[in-house]
Automatic annotation (TrEMBL):
<dbReference type="InterPro" id="IPR047641">
    <property type="entry name" value="ABC_transpr_MalK/UgpC-like"/>
</dbReference>
<dbReference type="InterPro" id="IPR015855">
    <property type="entry name" value="ABC_transpr_MalK-like"/>
</dbReference>
<dbReference type="GO" id="GO:0140359">
    <property type="term" value="F:ABC-type transporter activity"/>
</dbReference>
<keyword id="KW-0813">Transport</keyword>
<feature type="domain" description="ABC transporter">
    <location>
        <begin position="4"/>
        <end position="234"/>
    </location>
</feature>
<keyword id="KW-0067">ATP-binding</keyword>
<dbReference type="InterPro" id="IPR008995">
    <property type="entry name" value="Mo/tungstate-bd_C_term_dom"/>
</dbReference>
<protein>
    <submittedName>
        <fullName>ABC transporter</fullName>
    </submittedName>
</protein>
<keyword id="KW-0547">Nucleotide-binding</keyword>
<dbReference type="InterPro" id="IPR003593">
    <property type="entry name" value="AAA+_ATPase"/>
</dbReference>
<dbReference type="GO" id="GO:0016887">
    <property type="term" value="F:ATP hydrolysis activity"/>
</dbReference>
<dbReference type="GO" id="GO:0055052">
    <property type="term" value="C:ATP-binding cassette (ABC) transporter complex, substrate-binding subunit-containing"/>
</dbReference>
<dbReference type="GO" id="GO:0008643">
    <property type="term" value="P:carbohydrate transport"/>
</dbReference>
<dbReference type="GO" id="GO:0005524">
    <property type="term" value="F:ATP binding"/>
</dbReference>
<dbReference type="Pfam" id="PF00005">
    <property type="entry name" value="ABC_tran"/>
</dbReference>
<dbReference type="InterPro" id="IPR027417">
    <property type="entry name" value="P-loop_NTPase"/>
</dbReference>
<dbReference type="InterPro" id="IPR017871">
    <property type="entry name" value="ABC_transporter-like_CS"/>
</dbReference>
Length: 408
């Protein structure tokens, strides 16, 4: 059983911990991606698992064995780094076999393992080349090969695609995911790229400021973010975050956003009652925005469009929200929670908004566009704690919709 477990792992260089009581298990055969912005502690966590760093407290277990005090070479883990670190004077075959030679594996066995790994990686015809005669993607596969031939209990990968250009990255990430599934080797993979995490992982662990924010499947994180950080970090383009305030309108709970008041349907009103403050952050996924008013209650947002990106499959309309009387307190809270992310607005009075629309939508830069979001598609967060109060209601799955339809 090749699980990897971090038990209550903390690492502090000075007062503020770089990793703060992390509990995480990578299950046997699982591809778990550790994702987070720069400085969140991902590499530190991986280095602790590898044995290159000692935690201040807590334990690391590999296959159920406590390896916290075991030297890196004796942990039976293989690491793939972003710099491939291939020996330039050696052939691919010798690069792949090098670690095995050091470990005293005899020649026949070495050759067999290299041939097998090369076949899985599709690099058999490159075995006699030297690294300089390989493309970036091929070098990456050789680096993977070196890890595979060791037949370790688990792979540890630290941003292995970051030296590749965008197109190659897409190809190689699919290859790595496929190879991992073929071999079934437990893998802990670190990246700052949420798209990489979403496309490759069985489960994703989101780190921010040394704390584990959420652990779940890509679908969990996208549809049911645990807090505003995860909602803003996962998804492309990112979730729009708009400050709002809870009020009472004719005895009913209402949400004031961007100068309008939306009386909340009962189910949403119940969910927001848990908020520690009347200040609410409203999360809107760009793909949930409509240009026609939907049936039922909806937010109606006015956005001054300043950039239109036509991607072919969809059109992204970016602009500034006409905020009206957005509460100052919630606006400040929104700012404080998301200011760390460079892509999000840093001026608390200005709210950028992005809508992902049908490619045929006739929009131009410079206009003011009314945009609608059905109330059930809103994600709502406590502006003080960032905790999720409610997530968007799932649309009916085709089978469920079919079952609900009258019989023919
Ligand atoms: N030797 C050290 N002494 C003090 N602080 C350190 C040390 N090494 C790392 N840190 C700090 O620990 C934090 C986490 O670093 P880490 O490299 O794990 O982040 P990361 O999420 O992998 O970021 P990146 O994606 O930029 O590599 C950072 O704030 C970093 O400055």
């Amino acid at each position: 059983m090749s699980t990897i477990e971090l038990r209550d792992v903390t690492l502090a260089y000075d007062v503020r911990p770089v990793l703060d009581h992390i509990n995480l298990t990578v299950e046997d055969g699982e591809f778990l991606v550790l994702v987070g912005p720069s400085g969140s502690g991902k590499t530190t966590a991986l280095r602790i698992v590898a044995g290159l760093l000692q935690p201040s407290s807590g334990q690391v277990l590999v296959g159920g064995r406590d390896v916290t005090k075991v030297p890196p070479a004796d942990r039976d883990l293989a690491m793939v780094f972003q710099s491939y670190a291939l020996y330039p004077h050696m052939t691919v075959r010798n690069n792949m076999a090098f670690g095995l030679r050091l470990a005293g594996v005899h020649r026949k066995e070495r050759d067999q393992r290299v041939e097998r790994a090369a076949e899985v990686l599709g690099i058999t015809d490159l075995l006699d080349r030297r690294p300089k005669a390989l493309s970036g993607g091929q070098r990456q596969r050789v680096a993977m090969g070196r890890a595979i031939v060791r037949e370790p209990q688990a792979f540890l990968m630290d941003e292995p695609l970051s030296n590749l250009d965008a197109k190659l990255r897409t190809q190689v990430r699919a290859q790595i995911a496929r190879i991992q599934r073929t071999l079934g080797v437990t893998t802990l993979y670190v990246t700052h790229d949420q798209i990489e995490a979403m496309t490759m992982a069985d489960r994703i662990a989101v780190l921010h400021d040394g704390r584990l924010q959420q652990l779940g499947t890509p679908e969990d994180l996208f549809s049911r973010p645990a807090n505003v950080f995860v909602a803003a970090f996962i998804g492309s383009p990112p979730t729009n975050l708009i400050p709002g305030t809870l009020t009472t309108e004719d005895g009913q709970t209402a949400l004031r956003v961007g100068g309008q008041t939306l009386v909340l349907p009962a189910s949403i009103a119940t969910a927001v009652a848990a908020s520690s403050t009347p200040d609410i952050l409203v999360g809107v996924r760009p793909h949930d925005v409509e240009i026609k008013p939907p049936d039922g209650s909806a937010l109606d947002l006015q956005v001054d469009i300043d950039l239109v990106e036509r991607l072919g499959t969809e059109t992204l309309a970016h602009g500034e929200m006409v905020t009206g009387s957005v509460s100052g307190a919630a606006a400040q809270a929104a700012h404080a929670l998301i200011a760390a992310d460079d892509e999000l607005p840093t001026d608390p009075e200005k709210h950028r908004f992005t809508a992902a629309l049908d490619p045929h939508t006739p929009i131009t830069t410079g206009g003011r566009l009314p945009l609608y979001v059905a109330a059930e598609r809103l994600h709502l967060f406590d502006a003080e704690t960032g905790t999720t109060l409610r997530t968007a209601t799932q649309s009916l799955a085709p089978s469920a919709a079919g079952a609900a339809a009258p019989a023919a």
